[in-house]
Write a structure and sequence with these properties.
- This protein is of the alpha+beta class and 185 residues long.
- The chain has 6 helices and 7 strands; from the N terminus they run H-H-E-E-H-H-H-H-E-E-E-E-E.
- The chain has a 7-stranded antiparallel sheet with strand order 2-1-5-4-3-6-7, sandwiched between helices.
- Helix 1 runs parallel beside helix 6.
Length: 185
Amino acid sequence: MKNSIDLYEEIFISNKEFKGEIVEKHIKKYIEIDNIYPQNQSFFIVINTSRKCYEFISQNFHTILGHDIGLMKRMGPKYFLSLFHPDDLPLWLNVSKELMDYISDQVSLEDRKKLLFTYNFRIKNARGNYQNILAHLTPIEFDTFGTPVMAISHYTIVGEGVYKPIIGAIKVLNNKNVYETIFYK
């Protein structure tokens, strides 16, 4: 049986690695935003699935959850997934796989640049308590197959760790500039 990080790597496989100048361009902008973003119940992360790492983690990650940003950057998804509620992690991985399968089978390459992913899970804070997270992930770079490999993910605390069903949704910005749900589970 595969462990969670192996499943994560299998779901988010890419044929191209994003690093260097293209990554630095995004990081520079998010550092600027983070310097003016107030302390609140939200944080954001620049995810690079091609390298299985987090290129940027906003200061509010530590403020809200109490976890070490340096450790999160060094260990990447392995660390982040270890913070998920053990009941939520397999469900989240399954929904993530379904989201990726759906876009590769059902969404045109052009429309993939207009996607917004939404999902939820519970995460453990530094005090050992679980909190509910609602996440919105927007792809910002794609590999040559049109797979999203870099994304900005915005996470918001939406309550204490009371179980809520795991959801996964994909929205696409339609020709009227309105997000329309194309997948929901």
